[in-house]
Amino acid sequence: MALWIQAQQLQGDALLQMQSLYGQHFPIEVRHYLAQWLEAQPWDAIDLENQQEEFKAKRLLDGLIQELQKKAEHQMGEDGFLLKIKLVWVTILDKCHDFHFFHFHNDPLVRCVKHILYTEQRLVQEASNASSPGSGPVDGTPQKYQQINQTFEELRVMTQDTENDLRKLQHSQEYFIIQYQESLRIQAQLSSLASIPPAERVQRESGLQSRKSTLEVWLTREANTLQKYRQELAEKHQRTLALLRKQQTVIIDDELIQWKRRQQLAGNGGPSEGGLDILQAWCEKLADMIWQNRQQIRRVEHLTQQLPIPGPTEELLTELNATVTDIISALVTSTFIIEKQPPQVLKTQTKFSATVRLLVGGKLNVHMNPPQVKATIISEQQAKALLKNENTRNDSSGEILNNNCVMEYHQTTGTLSAHFRTMSLKRIKRSDRRGAESVTEEKFTVLFESQFSVGGNELVFHVKTLSLPVVVIVHGSQDNNATATVLWDNAFSEPGRVPFVVPDKVLWPQLCEALNMKYKSEVQSDRGLSEDNLVFLAQKAFSSSSNNPEDYCNMTISWSQFNRESLPGRNFTFWQWFDGVIELMKKHLKSHWNDGAILGFLNKQQAQDMLMSKPNGTFLLRFSDSEIGGITIAWVAENPNKAERMVWNLMPFTTKDFSIRSLADRISDLNHLLFLYPNQPKEEVFSRYCTPPNSKAVGDGYVKPEIKQVVKVENDPMLDTEGEFDLEETMDMARQVEEFLRQPMETQWSGQQS
């Protein structure tokens, strides 16, 4: 069922919340008549902080205008109010073309629509959960979310109950004070009787003494009652604050920490951490209820000061005040978070961005006096000292340009955030390295900090948050090893750790999960690493020959084995080899991997065993063991020097080779390659990726050259002793072509003459 249809079926408070989403900034009529179109658009695919994605947003804006115009023209006769929408709202939208699109009424339209659709979805899900309490989660909403919402309802009832009790106490105390004043008035009258005749004085004194005695008995009894009310109210506040703290622990220490963990794994290619809207809604509810209880406790304190009654209540109120202040302080400082992390491999003199957000900023009206946020880069040791509350206020490990930003409040979404768009690390100060540690193993972090007050300067907060670990590089050649440090840290760090402690050894299956996550993300494929692929990687990492996956389940791999020690007989590490494969696939071969055309993770012997049982001309593609980022073609054919079949291996191709001629074109060039293992004709697999033939005639008098790969098999001097072909001569051809393009000289290519 369409979301808008479900949203219109909401009732009560949910319906009011839904209706409040709309106004002049986005008319509800537009939502109604363009419901299907709005829900079909890729709003979530647009990164509002990325200026380069403005064209996507503008395309959606153009589409929205066109859809609105079409709908107005189609239904003009049926519903005249659409004419008003077309003339007024489309005029507003058209004006957006004269300004930067990301500032529409001081708030991005894309963010507005995303917020509306997300909120509607949440309200519909909550309504579905409420109507079917025994049916379990709806639309993937965790059962825990239902428990959180139930606790909020319990807290609401408790807070309302203490509010009612407080009013009752206030009314009782006001009446007590009136009666106490009456008691004082009677006492004053008794004192004035000395000046009147004795007979009259005795008569009047008797009546006043009787009223005074009765009133004093009532005051004594009522004072005890007031003290009892105060004590009971304080105990209720104790229970409410205990439940608030428990709820806050669930939201901050569980849900928010899980969100941060998902954010960290997303740095390794894991699923997106998801939005913060639900977490912000919870945190705002917490802030609202904490503040209500704080105000109630302060009102009780005022009543106590107004009418002091000896007893334990004053001490209890002092304790409650400290507790509620501690709870709200923990909430504010914990909800100052990094929504968009700075890059974890950070190159000096290069622009980068980040976004920080205060989840309770809107609810606590922090935006009324927008705070400024400052970013500083600090070392691992400085981060440790910071968490120990040691004085590191003026310490930094480098200089960041454009490192100050004022937090902005977005009215539509209710978010308070600071967007650092053009930061740049000007310089870095490194610490002394330990042992074999390289510069690409040294971790830094970006510290974001701010200061603001809430409640009319009642409370002042100094908030700070640390980014995920950052590895600083000065040259692109360091990116490979820096990425290894980041991947290991993201995959194996634990929540609440001391910065930035990470295990030196992990189980092989744990590393497999991280490698698979990274590979799928970089290659942009649902086809991850198979069990056979992971066995191959285990054999490479541990120099093992076992083909049984279970043999590796309990084995551990150290950081040194991962990216410090070279593989046996090689001058590169395990990670450097694997990262080379990722780079090759990402730049040139992802389509072939997604098609299943590349087996890749095979050694030379495995390829030979697989091909020898197949017809001549059968070939497969595997990654080179000897070269970083290399892939080779192995095929089975007759050996012209011996009367037998054998498997041939071309020298590996690299990114440099594929920038000259693609894999599909190279395979097409080699006529002796017939079937992709196990038995697919190569044309079925690769022809759609081949470059169309060049036209022979060109207007400038020159003929376009054509590069073709040639491999000679019969008595070929390029054949080495291990059955590999040296393609240097073929690469020489490419260089000759480059010379040809530079020089206006007569030469012959493909049977044509200039």
TrEMBL record:
<keyword id="KW-0963">Cytoplasm</keyword>
<dbReference type="GO" id="GO:0003677">
    <property type="term" value="F:DNA binding"/>
</dbReference>
<keyword id="KW-0804">Transcription</keyword>
<keyword id="KW-0727">SH2 domain</keyword>
<dbReference type="Pfam" id="PF02864">
    <property type="entry name" value="STAT_bind"/>
</dbReference>
<feature type="domain" description="SH2">
    <location>
        <begin position="593"/>
        <end position="693"/>
    </location>
</feature>
<dbReference type="InterPro" id="IPR013800">
    <property type="entry name" value="STAT_TF_alpha"/>
</dbReference>
<dbReference type="GO" id="GO:0005634">
    <property type="term" value="C:nucleus"/>
</dbReference>
<dbReference type="Pfam" id="PF02865">
    <property type="entry name" value="STAT_int"/>
</dbReference>
<protein>
    <recommendedName>
        <fullName>Signal transducer and activator of transcription</fullName>
    </recommendedName>
</protein>
<dbReference type="InterPro" id="IPR036535">
    <property type="entry name" value="STAT_N_sf"/>
</dbReference>
<keyword id="KW-0805">Transcription regulation</keyword>
<dbReference type="GO" id="GO:0007166">
    <property type="term" value="P:cell surface receptor signaling pathway"/>
</dbReference>
<dbReference type="Pfam" id="PF21354">
    <property type="entry name" value="STAT_linker"/>
</dbReference>
<dbReference type="GO" id="GO:0060429">
    <property type="term" value="P:epithelium development"/>
</dbReference>
<dbReference type="Pfam" id="PF01017">
    <property type="entry name" value="STAT_alpha"/>
</dbReference>
<keyword id="KW-0539">Nucleus</keyword>
<dbReference type="GO" id="GO:0003700">
    <property type="term" value="F:DNA-binding transcription factor activity"/>
</dbReference>
<comment type="similarity">
    <text>Belongs to the transcription factor STAT family.</text>
</comment>
<dbReference type="InterPro" id="IPR000980">
    <property type="entry name" value="SH2"/>
</dbReference>
<dbReference type="InterPro" id="IPR001217">
    <property type="entry name" value="STAT"/>
</dbReference>
<keyword id="KW-0010">Activator</keyword>
<dbReference type="InterPro" id="IPR013801">
    <property type="entry name" value="STAT_TF_DNA-bd"/>
</dbReference>
<dbReference type="InterPro" id="IPR035858">
    <property type="entry name" value="STAT5a/5b_DBD"/>
</dbReference>
<dbReference type="InterPro" id="IPR015988">
    <property type="entry name" value="STAT_TF_CC"/>
</dbReference>
<keyword id="KW-0238">DNA-binding</keyword>
<dbReference type="GO" id="GO:0009653">
    <property type="term" value="P:anatomical structure morphogenesis"/>
</dbReference>
<dbReference type="InterPro" id="IPR012345">
    <property type="entry name" value="STAT_TF_DNA-bd_N"/>
</dbReference>
<dbReference type="GO" id="GO:0005829">
    <property type="term" value="C:cytosol"/>
</dbReference>
<dbReference type="InterPro" id="IPR048988">
    <property type="entry name" value="STAT_linker"/>
</dbReference>
<keyword id="KW-0597">Phosphoprotein</keyword>
<dbReference type="Pfam" id="PF00017">
    <property type="entry name" value="SH2"/>
</dbReference>
<dbReference type="InterPro" id="IPR008967">
    <property type="entry name" value="p53-like_TF_DNA-bd_sf"/>
</dbReference>
<dbReference type="InterPro" id="IPR036860">
    <property type="entry name" value="SH2_dom_sf"/>
</dbReference>
<dbReference type="InterPro" id="IPR013799">
    <property type="entry name" value="STAT_TF_prot_interaction"/>
</dbReference>
<dbReference type="InterPro" id="IPR046994">
    <property type="entry name" value="STAT5_CC"/>
</dbReference>
